[in-house]
Amino acid sequence: MAKYKKAPEPVKIRLRKNDLVEVTTGKEQGKTGKILKVIRGKNQVLIEKVNLIKRHTRPSPTTGQGGIVEKEAPVYVSKVKLICPKCATSTRFRITVTGEGKKARVCLKCKELIDG
Ligand SMILES: [Zn+2]
Hints:
Elements: E1 20-23, E2 32-39, E3 44-47, E4 52-57, E5 67-72, E6 75-76, E7 80-82, E8 93-97, E9 103-107
Antiparallel strand pairs: 1-2, 1-7, 2-3, 3-6, 4-5, 8-9
Bound molecules: zinc ion.
Zinc ion binds next to loops.
């Protein structure tokens, strides 16, 4: 039987599209951006303008001008931290249930609800 590379342990990703996050480690450390996409199967997120990779493209009749195109590469969720929109710092948060019975994230620093 063919051996398959073991899929990464699924982690609970508590980040969502459009969340503002900060990269906490690696060469992109300190950079902040908005989450463009959450890739749950890989425990990764795509962050706007973070971890850009350069793709060289050749000029062709279909793409027109060739050159270098910058594109976001995914970052592991373990390397990013949510930024609280209220206190504007990267923060830890917990999940709470609001009065309406909805799940929401609460900033542990300013105790404000992160989700509207
Ligand atoms: Zn806060």
